[in-house]
TrEMBL record, chain A:
This is Dihydroorotase. It comes from Nocardioides jiangxiensis. GO terms for molecular function: dihydroorotase activity. Zn(2+) 1 binds at residues 57, 59, 151, 306. Residues 48-237 form the Dihydroorotase catalytic domain. Keywords: Hydrolase, Metal-binding, Pyrimidine biosynthesis, Zinc.
TrEMBL record, chain B:
It catalyses: carbamoyl phosphate + L-aspartate = N-carbamoyl-L-aspartate + phosphate + H(+). Pathway: Pyrimidine metabolism; UMP biosynthesis via de novo pathway; (S)-dihydroorotate from bicarbonate: step 2/3. Catalyzes the condensation of carbamoyl phosphate and aspartate to form carbamoyl aspartate and inorganic phosphate, the committed step in the de novo pyrimidine nucleotide biosynthesis pathway. Residues 3-145 form the Aspartate/ornithine carbamoyltransferase carbamoyl-P binding domain. It is an enzyme of class 2 (transferase). This is Aspartate carbamoyltransferase.
Length: 431, 316
């Protein structure tokens, strides 16, 4: 098979149609009526070409819970979702808190071959929040770790957070914080947004303030240390206000929002369905509106899936006992189109910014998030902007089925994904 | 009536009245020498309790046995998670033994709702976490109607730890459904989150001031303060709670003459309720216990008895 591909007539970032010639892993030509000799031709009239997506926040469950997801199946789900790179969170078993563990994740990603799997390193040993993990060794390893996170838990000790922020400056790292003050929202018990619905349902609440106090503290620590902090999965209007203020002050802070926090609200909990149990929890509609607005105006830098696969039985407990998390990789684009593009809040350049360019920059991934230009790596996602998709959880390539979108109709679908010029997905199907 | 009793929301006003009418007949059985009706003969009911309970389990057990059901008590203490088995697997295993009804208590809110979605047999919620305890609400309202007659326009005060109380959550729904005006009283730390909007939507009042509420109350329902809350920072000391929110001897004088005093038990005498209040002539605490069996008989009868059993009950 030819190693050249000609994508014919795609709208580049939603703009004018053009041909894209992919060869030797890079974009070899960009223009109209390019010579297709020797190339596989992909007819792309009506499709939108975007730089390949980068997910700052993926849980791949390997090692430890290969029954829920593996690096291979998670990579496949990512490719189907239009991703060319994902950052694999550290809260596996064992935790990714050493150079060896990080390199193992990297190698399994290479072996899978669907997306670049970039390991995230733990901030503290075994995610316990007390002693720094070997941040420098992970950074200097073959995995070249740049993003560190205790995700699932908060680096709640201010002294430890300060030291982590200071330490990662040596190698241009960033601390991605799971903002949850456990004294206000205890791990394990606080299971849904604290408000009228939690009050009526008798569920232990997770108040927005538990996130906001950590975000506020961390931006001040970032200012104090002159370091870079990233806020994972912001979920409240208050957090957004803090980040907006911090950016106005020149503090080096970035943040991400999940697809589900852009659309789903606390109302989903009324049936006690653990599919909708996620951390941070789904918030009220006014928070959802604030998150959309902040993503549109650039206060929120990126959309990150927090893809959290779980085996079926891990969700078949009472709500408070069930596992946190929901799937996200395969549906993120559709949710962004439905919530941000169809509503006029974001154009296609904006979609590229929040799904590719910004996350690649935050993660320090040089090979991703490039503009679509000759010479750039051929990491490309082709999107059908008007496709109506009724999500079917059984059609997922993830090993898990905790899909909050099952049965819902969303707009926009990934048509094809190219990783360094090679199609990993074509017409929505894995290659 | 719906298939399951998971929440007071499952019941219409007519359902509640029907349950009360049947309960009144069942109540009479308690005074017979032979306390046995054939209504559920041949039926098997499992009391599946994931959480300790003496009075509720016993009450359901007696209710089932007086209706001639075979009642099996199963304790599944500790969360199913801690045992490594999912809740779904646990209840499917138990109910695969061919039972006709499941009475379930669980420490997690919503557990009964989830279980009902997995089973074809009627599920009766005997208390789910801090969510609901519908049969307790029914027995409380039934007790009050026997004391006060119709609850339409009657003012009922519910006082205590609202945040952690399933008795409150079911109670306020049941009482307002029957037309009562309800005021709930607690320190701010023990008010459920979002109660301002909730109370407005649901049509009940809130107060931090028990002394202001009691003089207009036609009945007062005291809630148990769970000991573990005292170390949770919800209030400074037991003494301060009693002074602020307890039904003390001096507060008894604020109540209308004969206003019933209810408490779901077990009582912390001297904390949320003074012995003088617990033992007052107007105390309905033991009536509640007795009514509990009648109400549970009524609920089991309505959910489990087929037409033939009904005929047998009425002697036709």
């Amino acid at each position: 098979m030819s190693d050249k591909t000609l994508i014919r007539g795609a709208r580049i970032l939603g703009g004018e149609p053009a041909d894209l010639l992919l060869a030797d892993g890079a974009i070899a030509g960009l223009g109209t009526d390019l010579d297709a000799t020797g190339a596989v031709v992909v007819e792309a009239a009506g499709l939108v070409a975007l730089p390949g997506f980068v997910d700052l926040h993926t849980h791949l469950r390997q090692p430890g819970r290969e029954d829920a997801e593996t690096i291979l199946t998670g990579s496949q789900a990512a490719a189907v979702g239009g991703y060319t790179a994902v950052l694999a969170m550290a809260n596996t078993n064992p935790v990714t808190d050493t150079a060896e563990a990080a390199e193992r994740v990297l190698d399994l990603g290479v072996a899978a071959g669907y997306v670049d799997v970039q390991p995230v390193g733990a901030v503290t040993k075994d995610l316990e929040g007390h002693e720094l993990a070997e941040l420098g060794l992970m950074a200097r390893s073959r995995a070249r770790v740049r993003v560190f996170s205790d995700d699932g838990k908060c680096v709640h000790d201010a002294r430890v957070m300060r030291r982590a922020l200071e330490y990662v400056k040596a190698f241009g790292g960033v601390v991605s914080q799971h903002a949850q003050d456990p004294s206000l929202a205890p791990y394990g018990s606080a299971c849904c947004h604290e408000g009228e619905i939690s009050g009526q349902l008798g569920l232990p609440g997770w108040p927005g303030i538990a996130e906001e106090v950590i975000v506020a503290r961390d931006v001040m620590l970032a200012r104090h240390t002159g370091s870079r902090v990233h806020v994972a999965h912001v979920s409240t209007a208050g957090s957004v206000e803090v980040v907006r203020w911090a950016k106005s002050q020149g503090i080096d802070v970035t943040c991400e929002v999940t697809p589900h926090h852009l659309i789903l609200t606390t109302d989903e909990l009324l049936g006690y369905d653990p599919t909708y149990k996620v951390n941070p929890p789904l918030r009220p509609a006014e928070d959802v509106q604030a998150l959309r607005a902040a993503l549109a105006d650039g206060t929120i830098d990126a959309v990150a899936t927090d893809h959290a696969p779980h085996a079926k039985h891990d969700k078949e407990h009472a709500f408070v006992d069930a596992a946190f998390g929901m799937l996200g990789l395969e549906t993120a684009l559709s949710v962004v189109v439905t919530t941000m593009v169809e509503t006029g809040l974001l154009d296609w350049a904006g979609v590229a910014r929040v799904l590719s360019t910004n996350p690649a920059r935050i993660a320090g991934l040089d090979g991703h998030g490039h503009e679509i230009a000759v010479g750039a790596p051929a990491n490309i996602t082709l999107v059908d902007p008007s496709a109506k998709v009724t999500v079917d959880r059984d059609a997922s390539v993830s090993l898990s089925r905790n899909n909050p979108w099952h049965g819902r109709e969303l707009t926009g679908a990934v048509h094809a994904t190219f990783l360094r010029g090679k199609a990993t997905v074509m017409e929505g199907k894995l290659q | 009536m719906k298939k399951h009793l998971l929440s007071i929301d499952d019941l219409t006003v007519d359902d509640v009245h029907a349950l009360f009418e049947t309960a009144a007949e069942m109540h009479d059985v308690q005074r017979r020498d032979v306390k046995k009706l054939p209504a559920l003969r041949g039926k098997t009911v499992i009391n599946l309790f994931f959480e300790d309970s003496t009075r509720t389990r016993s009450s359901f057990e007696i209710a089932g046995k007086w209706l001639s059901a075979d009642v099996i008590n199963l304790s599944a203490k500790g969360s199913s998670t801690s045992k490594g088995e999912s809740l779904r697997d646990t209840v499917l295993t138990v109910t695969a033994m061919g039972i006709d009804g499941l009475v379930m208590r669980h420490s997690a809110s919503g557990a009964a709702h989830q279980v009902a979605g997995w089973l074809d047999i009627p599920v009766i919620n005997a208390g789910d976490g801090t969510h609901e305890h519908p049969t307790q609400a029914l027995l409380d309202a039934y007790t009050l109607t026997r004391r006060l007659g119709s609850l339409e326009g009657r003012h009922i005060a519910i006082v205590g730890d609202l945040t952690h109380s399933r008795v409150f959550r079911s109670g306020v729904k049941c009482l307002t459904k029957l037309g009562a005006e309800v005021t709930v009283v607690a320190p701010p730390t023990l008010m459920p989150s979002g109660i301002t909007a909730w109370s407005k939507d649901a049509g009940f009042a809130t107060s931090y001031d028990v002394d202001a509420v009691l003089p207009t109350a036609d009945a007062v329902m005291m809630l148990r303060v769970q000991k573990e809350r005292m170390s949770g920072g919800y209030f400074p000391t037991a003494r301060e709670y009693t002074v602020g929110y307890g039904l003390t001897r001096s507060r008894l004088a604020l109540l209308k003459e004969g206003a019933p005093i209810l408490h779901p038990g077990p009582m912390n005498r001297g904390l949320e309720i003074a012995p003088e209040a617990a033992d007052a002539a107007s105390s309905a605490v033991l009536d509640q216990v007795s009514a509990g069996v009648a109400i549970r008989m009524s609920v089991l009868y309505h959910l489990l008895a087929g037409p033939s059993a009904a005929a047998a009950t009425t002697g036709e």
